[in-house]
Write a structure and sequence with these properties.
Layout lengths: L5 H6 L12 H11 L4 H8 L3 H8 L9 H14 L4 H10 L21 H28 L4 E5 L4 E3 L3 E8 L4 E4 L2 E3 L6 E7 L3 E10 L5 E10 L1 H5 L1
Helix pairs in contact: 3-5, 5-6
Amino acid sequence: MLTPGFEKELSGSFARRTLPQNTLGEALRIVREEAGLSLAELAIRSKVQEKYIAAIEAGRYDQTPGSVYVKGFLKEIAKVLELSPNSVIARFETEPYVVPARQPKPLDQPKFFFGHYTWRLLVFLGFLLIFLIYFGIQIQKIILPPELSVSYPATDIIMNSPQITLTGKTEPEVLVEINDQAVTVDAVGNFQETIDLQPGVNTLVISAKKKRSRSTVITRRVLVELNEVLK
C-alpha cells in the first residue's frame, strides 16, 4: 500500500525539493522497501531491467536509454507499487536533472587514411594495371589476324602475259601464302612473287597468318587473254 501522504507529495511541493531523499528516485525506493520488494523482485514484476530501476532510484538517468524509455519504466513500476502512473510521470518531468531524449548517433562516415602501406598498395595496383594493359595488347597482337595489302595487282585485271609479279605488304614474321605456296617476307613485311599464269581466269588467293591467329585473305582474279598470248 502507498505510504500516507505520498500521493500528495508526488503531486505537491515535494517535487520541487532538492534534498537527495526527496527526489523521485528516493521516494520510489522508500515505497518499494515499505512494500517489501527487492530490486530483483520489482524488476520481475514490472518487467523493467533491474539496472534501470537502480539507476532511476539513484537519479542516474544518464544510465538509462532515454526519457521516452524512462517514462515507460516509471509507468510499469508505479503499477506494481500501487502509485498513480500519471502522477509519477508528471513528477519525473519536473525533476531538475531529467535526462534528455537521446539523439540517434549519426552514421560514421568512412575515413580514408593514406599511410605508408596505402601508398605502397596504390603503387602496386598502378603497376598491376600497366602490366595488364601491356599483356592485353600483346595477346591482341598474337590472336588478331595480321594486316595484309596487295599493291599489284591492286584489283582484278586483264593481261596478255603468261606471268605476273605480285607484290604486297604485311606484318613482320607473318606467314604469307599464294595459292597455298609459301612466299618469302622481308624484315619489314614486304613480299614479292612471280607467278605463272594459264590462259583464261586465274584466281590468286593471298593469305597472311600469325602462329596463333586467324588468316587474312585477299583474292585477285587475273584474266589472261588466250588470243593475245597465242599471237
